[in-house]
């Protein structure tokens, strides 16, 4: 058994130091929504089956803060955490610190998974992470309120704005002064990169920040229009506080009955449909709106994977835990209990899974054709690219700069990053 002390390595700005008691192996899990509880339940099942013990470490909800913590731990070559839950955009930058799971798993271990995610997790021929759950942004809406006001589910951002204004005005006239039309993730962090990329990519020729050839594509008239529209939401159909919302703050407002629409990940479905929810059985889920009649719905690819640290003292045992947690049985349990998207295509045809989360079937194409962030082409420079992007967008949303000037400034910053090679 190894003694763990993460207090020293967790001294990251804004984070609470973590203390972990002795455990045979350790896994870091997220705590957004029901993530932590589902991870703990899966680990407990493996402990019972294997006879080994595992310590579960909760990490920051913000992906940006979590990456900083991980990099500090890994750069220190610490053996304190054996299994890391890593974002879909991190395999390339963290690969030098992760083991090749092909050394420990059966040759056919990845055969039944989405090929694109396996490819994403394979760096220089090394399988550095196993797909755990995938993600794509979706639009949650109050079906009861749309029905009451005689409105259709919006298919464009323009229609969403108009519907939000109508229902918001009506609900406030009825006495709910805290009701808003639309909530999303507007804090300056990775979640805003995702939201803003969805806005921009939904417009024809809106670009994807950086294209597959490494060209900067974000500074264009369609992107200006997308960000200008989003900036117009602040104080109109979205609260000023949305500028500091992550996933859970947005869910809190929506689930308490104080918003008509919400952009979030599929995990929120299980929570808004729970017995504790104020809006249970009054919610629908559809693809995100398009940027005008000539645009298209654009959901950014999300998802998380499980990787084993090169500095683990028990890499084989850690790989066994990874194999168990990403197995069909565990992924099915997580889909039914928490609405986490499986990384196994077969589970999208499973009757029990579809009964629990119906939109897994209706939005299957959304999940399989999601827009990737430019992490592959920008490599280890991606965190700087994303930081530059979400900070520029946040300045526009905050009203500190116009969209046109903000994107021009962003272009200059991205060119400086690019000159250092990505």
Your description of this structure?
- The protein has 422 residues and is an alpha+beta fold.
- The chain folds into two domains: 25-135 and 302-368, D-Maltodextrin-Binding Protein, domain 2 (3-Layer(aba) Sandwich), CATH 3.40.190.10; 138-298 and 374-419, D-Maltodextrin-Binding Protein, domain 2, CATH 3.40.190.10.
- 41% of the residues lie in helices and 13% in strands.
- The protein contains 18 helices and eleven strands.
- It has helices at residues 35-50, 63-75, 91-94, 115-120, 143-148, 157-173, 190-201, 221-233, 247-255, 268-272, 315-325, 328-338, 351-356, 359-362, 364-368, 375-378, 382-397, 403-419, and strands spanning 25-29, 54-58, 83-87, 122-123, 126-127, 130-136, 138-142, 180-183, 259-264, 283-286, 301-308.
- The strands form four sheets. Strands 8-9-7-10 form a four-stranded mixed beta sheet. It has a three-stranded antiparallel beta sheet with strand order 3-11-6. A two-stranded parallel ribbon has the order 1-2.
- Strand 1 (25-29), helix 1 (35-50) and strand 2 (54-58) form a beta-alpha-beta unit.
- Helix 7 crosses helix 8 (221-233), helix 7 packs across helix 17 (382-397) and helix 17 runs antiparallel to helix 18.
- It starts with 24 loop residues before the first strand and ends with a helix.
- The model is unreliable at 1-23 (pLDDT under 50).
């Amino acid at each position: 058994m190894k003694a763990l002390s993460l207090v020293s390595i967790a001294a990251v700005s804004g984070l609470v130091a973590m203390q972990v008691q002795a455990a045979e192996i350790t896994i870091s899990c997220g705590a957004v929504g029901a993530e932590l509880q589902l991870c703990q339940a899966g680990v407990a099942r493996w402990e019972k089956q294997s006879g080994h013990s595992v310590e579960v470490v909760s990490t920051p909800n913000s992906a940006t803060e979590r990456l900083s913590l991980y990099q500090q731990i890994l750069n220190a070559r610490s053996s304190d955490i054996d299994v890391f839950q890593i974002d879909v955009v991190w395999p390339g930058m963290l690969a030098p610190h992760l083991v090749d799971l092909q050394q420990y798993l059966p040759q056919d271990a990845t055969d039944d998974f989405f090929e694109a995610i396996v490819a994403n997790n394979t760096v220089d021929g090394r399988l550095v992470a196993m797909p755990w759950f995938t993600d794509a942004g979706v639009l949650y809406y109050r079906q009861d309120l749309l029905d009451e006001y005689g409105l259709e589910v919006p298919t464009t951002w323009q229609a969403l704005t108009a519907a939000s204004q109508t229902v918001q005005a009506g609900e406030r006239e009825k006495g709910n002064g805290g009701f808003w039309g639309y909530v999303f993730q507007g804090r300056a962090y990775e979640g805003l990169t995702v939201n803003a990329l969805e806005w921009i990519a939904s417009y024809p020729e809106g670009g994807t920040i950086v294209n597959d050839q490494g060209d900067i594509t974000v500074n264009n008239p369609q992107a200006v229009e997308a960000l200008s529209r989003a900036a117009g939401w602040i104080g109109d159909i979205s609260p000023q506080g949305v500028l500091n919302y992550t996933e859970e703050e947005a869910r809190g407002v929506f689930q308490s009955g104080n918003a008509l629409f919400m952009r979030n990940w599929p995990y929120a479905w299980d929570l808004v449909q729970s017995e504790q929810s104020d809006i249970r059985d009054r919610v629908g889920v559809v693809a995100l709106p398009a940027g005008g009649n000539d645009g298209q719905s654009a959901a950014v690819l999300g998802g998380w994977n499980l990787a084993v640290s090169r500095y683990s003292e028990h890499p084989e045992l850690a790989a066994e835990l990874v194999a168990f947690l990403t197995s069909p049985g565990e992924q099915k349990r997580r889909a039914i209990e928490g609405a986490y998207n499986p990384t196994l295509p077969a589970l999208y045809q499973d009757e029990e899974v579809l009964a629990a989360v119906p939109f897994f079937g209706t939005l299957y194409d959304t999940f399989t054709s999601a827009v990737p962030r430019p992490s592959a082409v920008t490599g280890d420079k991606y965190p700087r690219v994303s930081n530059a992007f979400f900070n520029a967008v946040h300045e526009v949303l905050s009203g500190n700069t116009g969209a046109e000037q903000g994107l021009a400034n962003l272009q200059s910053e991205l060119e400086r990053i690019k000159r250092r090679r990505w």
